[in-house]
Protein backbone atom coordinates (compact mmCIF):
# COMPACT_ATOMS: atom_id res chain seq x y z
CA UNK A 1 0.00 0.00 0.00
CA UNK A 2 1.44 3.34 -1.07
CA UNK A 3 0.68 6.15 1.40
CA UNK A 4 0.55 9.91 0.90
CA UNK A 5 1.78 12.24 3.70
CA UNK A 6 -0.54 11.88 6.69
CA UNK A 7 -1.87 8.53 5.51
CA UNK A 8 -1.81 5.49 7.77
CA UNK A 9 -2.37 1.75 7.67
CA UNK A 10 -2.54 -1.08 10.23
CA UNK A 11 0.52 -3.30 10.64
CA UNK A 12 0.94 -6.61 12.51
CA UNK A 13 2.48 -6.52 15.98
CA UNK A 14 5.44 -8.62 14.87
CA UNK A 15 9.07 -8.09 13.94
CA UNK A 16 9.07 -5.74 10.94
CA UNK A 17 11.71 -4.09 8.79
CA UNK A 18 11.69 -0.40 7.92
CA UNK A 19 13.83 0.33 4.87
CA UNK A 20 14.84 3.91 4.03
CA UNK A 21 16.20 4.53 0.54
CA UNK A 22 17.85 7.84 -0.33
CA UNK A 23 19.46 9.05 -3.54
CA UNK A 24 22.25 10.68 -1.56
CA UNK A 25 24.02 10.68 1.80
CA UNK A 26 21.73 10.89 4.84
CA UNK A 27 21.89 9.74 8.46
CA UNK A 28 18.86 7.71 9.55
CA UNK A 29 17.67 7.63 13.17
CA UNK A 30 14.81 6.11 15.15
CA UNK A 31 13.29 7.49 18.36
CA UNK A 32 11.41 5.40 20.92
CA UNK A 33 8.67 7.67 22.29
CA UNK A 34 6.28 7.60 25.22
CA UNK A 35 2.88 9.10 26.06
CA UNK A 36 4.22 12.66 25.97
CA UNK A 37 5.79 12.13 22.54
CA UNK A 38 9.29 12.40 24.02
CA UNK A 39 12.22 10.11 24.73
CA UNK A 40 13.14 9.18 28.29
CA UNK A 41 16.88 8.86 27.79
CA UNK A 42 19.78 8.27 25.41
CA UNK A 43 18.82 4.60 25.01
CA UNK A 44 15.63 5.69 23.21
CA UNK A 45 17.59 6.92 20.17
CA UNK A 46 18.99 4.51 17.56
CA UNK A 47 21.42 5.95 15.01
CA UNK A 48 24.84 5.34 13.46
CA UNK A 49 26.57 5.95 16.80
CA UNK A 50 24.23 3.61 18.71
CA UNK A 51 22.82 1.07 16.22
CA UNK A 52 20.84 -0.89 18.81
CA UNK A 53 18.71 0.20 21.75
CA UNK A 54 19.03 -1.17 25.27
CA UNK A 55 16.54 -4.04 24.95
CA UNK A 56 17.23 -4.92 21.31
CA UNK A 57 13.74 -4.06 20.08
CA UNK A 58 15.09 -1.54 17.54
CA UNK A 59 18.31 -1.96 15.56
CA UNK A 60 19.87 -0.30 12.51
CA UNK A 61 22.06 -1.44 9.63
CA UNK A 62 23.23 1.21 7.14
CA UNK A 63 24.87 0.47 3.80
CA UNK A 64 25.45 3.38 1.45
CA UNK A 65 22.11 4.87 0.44
CA UNK A 66 20.11 2.22 2.31
CA UNK A 67 19.24 2.18 6.01
CA UNK A 68 17.28 -0.74 7.45
CA UNK A 69 15.70 -0.76 10.91
CA UNK A 70 14.47 -3.99 12.48
CA UNK A 71 11.66 -3.30 14.97
CA UNK A 72 10.10 -5.95 17.23
CA UNK A 73 6.71 -4.37 17.86
CA UNK A 74 5.63 -7.44 19.83
CA UNK A 75 8.46 -6.93 22.35
CA UNK A 76 8.16 -3.20 22.98
CA UNK A 77 7.37 -2.17 26.54
CA UNK A 78 3.68 -1.31 27.11
CA UNK A 79 4.48 2.35 27.82
CA UNK A 80 6.15 2.83 24.43
CA UNK A 81 3.63 4.63 22.21
CA UNK A 82 5.59 5.42 19.04
CA UNK A 83 8.72 4.64 17.06
CA UNK A 84 9.58 7.58 14.78
CA UNK A 85 11.97 7.27 11.81
CA UNK A 86 13.97 10.27 10.62
CA UNK A 87 16.72 11.30 8.22
CA UNK A 88 19.24 14.14 8.43
CA UNK A 89 21.31 15.46 5.53
CA UNK A 90 25.06 15.89 5.94
CA UNK A 91 27.27 18.91 5.38
CA UNK A 92 24.68 21.66 5.16
CA UNK A 93 22.76 19.92 2.37
CA UNK A 94 18.96 19.88 2.10
CA UNK A 95 16.61 17.09 1.07
CA UNK A 96 15.97 18.75 -2.30
CA UNK A 97 19.51 17.72 -3.24
CA UNK A 98 18.61 14.02 -2.94
CA UNK A 99 17.62 12.09 -6.06
CA UNK A 100 14.88 10.26 -4.17
CA UNK A 101 13.75 9.47 -0.63
CA UNK A 102 11.36 6.69 0.36
CA UNK A 103 10.38 4.50 3.30
CA UNK A 104 9.07 0.92 3.10
CA UNK A 105 7.68 -1.33 5.83
CA UNK A 106 8.17 -5.05 5.25
CA UNK A 107 7.37 -8.31 7.01
CA UNK A 108 9.77 -10.93 5.75
CA UNK A 109 9.65 -10.77 1.96
CA UNK A 110 6.24 -9.07 1.95
CA UNK A 111 5.92 -5.32 1.48
CA UNK A 112 3.23 -3.83 3.72
CA UNK A 113 3.24 -0.05 3.25
CA UNK A 114 5.46 2.54 1.58
CA UNK A 115 5.78 6.26 1.03
CA UNK A 116 7.87 8.47 -1.26
CA UNK A 117 8.77 12.06 -0.40
CA UNK A 118 8.26 14.78 -3.01
CA UNK A 119 11.63 16.53 -2.85
CA UNK A 120 11.26 19.38 -5.33
CA UNK A 121 11.65 22.77 -3.65
CA UNK A 122 12.11 21.40 -0.14
CA UNK A 123 14.82 23.20 1.83
CA UNK A 124 14.76 21.22 5.08
CA UNK A 125 17.88 19.44 6.29
CA UNK A 126 15.96 16.84 8.31
CA UNK A 127 12.67 14.96 7.99
CA UNK A 128 10.44 12.74 10.08
CA UNK A 129 9.67 10.13 7.44
CA UNK A 130 7.18 7.96 9.30
CA UNK A 131 6.19 6.36 12.58
CA UNK A 132 4.72 3.26 14.15
CA UNK A 133 2.10 4.21 16.74
CA UNK A 134 -0.32 2.45 19.06
CA UNK A 135 -4.05 2.85 18.49
CA UNK A 136 -6.50 0.89 20.67
CA UNK A 137 -3.82 -1.68 21.54
CA UNK A 138 -3.03 -2.26 17.87
CA UNK A 139 -0.15 -0.88 15.80
CA UNK A 140 -0.35 1.39 12.78
CA UNK A 141 2.18 3.06 10.51
CA UNK A 142 1.83 6.70 9.46
CA UNK A 143 3.74 8.31 6.58
CA UNK A 144 4.67 11.76 7.95
CA UNK A 145 7.24 13.53 5.69
CA UNK A 146 7.53 16.50 8.12
CA UNK A 147 10.64 18.66 7.77
CA UNK A 148 12.92 20.68 10.05
CA UNK A 149 14.92 23.54 8.54
CA UNK A 150 17.65 23.49 11.17
CA UNK A 151 18.62 19.85 10.78
CA UNK A 152 19.50 17.54 13.66
CA UNK A 153 19.25 20.04 16.54
CA UNK A 154 15.56 21.04 16.15
CA UNK A 155 14.72 17.46 15.19
CA UNK A 156 16.28 16.12 18.40
CA UNK A 157 14.65 18.86 20.49
CA UNK A 158 11.28 17.93 18.99
CA UNK A 159 11.68 14.51 20.61
CA UNK A 160 13.05 15.79 23.92
CA UNK A 161 16.75 15.25 23.21
CA UNK A 162 19.37 17.97 23.65
CA UNK A 163 22.58 17.92 21.65
CA UNK A 164 25.48 19.41 23.57
CA UNK A 165 27.12 22.39 21.89
CA UNK A 166 30.65 21.97 20.65
CA UNK A 167 33.08 23.41 23.23
CA UNK A 168 34.70 26.71 22.26
CA UNK A 169 38.34 26.36 21.26
CA UNK A 170 40.76 27.19 24.05
CA UNK A 171 42.69 30.44 23.75
CA UNK A 172 46.29 29.85 22.65
CA UNK A 173 48.86 30.06 25.41
CA UNK A 174 52.40 31.31 24.92
CA UNK A 175 55.01 28.57 24.74
CA UNK A 176 56.89 27.86 27.93
CA UNK A 177 60.61 27.32 27.57
CA UNK A 178 61.99 24.78 29.99
CA UNK A 179 65.57 23.67 30.40
CA UNK A 180 66.40 20.21 29.09
CA UNK A 181 66.07 17.51 31.75
CA UNK A 182 69.17 16.06 33.25
CA UNK A 183 67.72 12.56 33.08
CA UNK A 184 65.27 11.21 30.45
CA UNK A 185 62.05 9.95 32.04
CA UNK A 186 58.83 8.53 30.58
CA UNK A 187 55.85 10.75 31.42
CA UNK A 188 52.35 9.26 31.35
CA UNK A 189 49.60 11.87 31.12
CA UNK A 190 45.85 11.53 30.82
CA UNK A 191 44.31 12.18 27.42
CA UNK A 192 40.98 13.97 27.48
CA UNK A 193 38.69 13.26 24.55
CA UNK A 194 35.79 15.68 24.10
CA UNK A 195 32.88 14.18 22.21
CA UNK A 196 29.45 15.50 21.26
CA UNK A 197 27.00 13.78 23.58
CA UNK A 198 23.24 13.28 23.64
CA UNK A 199 21.53 14.05 26.92
CA UNK A 200 17.85 13.60 27.53
CA UNK A 201 15.90 16.69 28.35
From TrEMBL:
GO terms for biological process: response to tellurium ion. It comes from the Bacteria. Residues 24-159 form the TerD domain. Transmembrane segments: none annotated. Signal peptide: none annotated. Pfam families: TerD. Keywords: Plasmid, Tellurium resistance. PANTHER family: CAMP-BINDING PROTEIN 1-RELATED, TELLURITE RESISTANCE PROTEIN. This is Tellurium resistance protein TerA. It comes from Escherichia coli.
Amino acid sequence: MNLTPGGNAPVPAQELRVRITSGGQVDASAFRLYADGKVQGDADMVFYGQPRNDDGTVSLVSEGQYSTFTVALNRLKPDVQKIAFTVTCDGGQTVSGLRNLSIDVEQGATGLVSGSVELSGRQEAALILGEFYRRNNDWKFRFVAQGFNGGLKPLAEHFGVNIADEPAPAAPTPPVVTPPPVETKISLSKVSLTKRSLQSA
